[in-house]
Amino acid sequence: MSELIGSLVILVGAFFLFSAGLGLLRMPDVFTRIQAGTKASTLGNILVLAGLGIYHPDWSLKLLIVAYFVLMTNPLSSHALSRAAHAIRTPMAATTIVDALREEKDDAAEEGFR
Fold this sequence. Notes:
The protein has helices spanning about 1-25, 30-55, 60-85, 100-114. The protein is mainly α and about 110 residues long. Helix 1 (about 1-25) packs antiparallel against helix 2 (about 30-55) and helix 2 (about 30-55) packs antiparallel against helix 3 (about 60-85). The radius of gyration is 19 Å and the shape is elongated.
């Protein structure tokens, strides 16, 4: 029974990993691609690791350590990539309405002149 549950969790994780790849192809600009790829791939990786932990209980500690590193590095790396893309003025999609980082920089510049 645990093999079936583990396999199903791995399958759901594979679906999220597939949707991450699809998001990379379908999104209009680098910022939305980073966001789609990071959220879906993080969840997909965690589900695959959880499914492997259910399927092979003796690997659980090692898989937990790997899951911890995935949870720490995926969001941090995507944040660093998106900040770098914004810093070099990578264009946003035409449908983007709000640029919160640009507004934050503008507000900080206004505070500096007061």
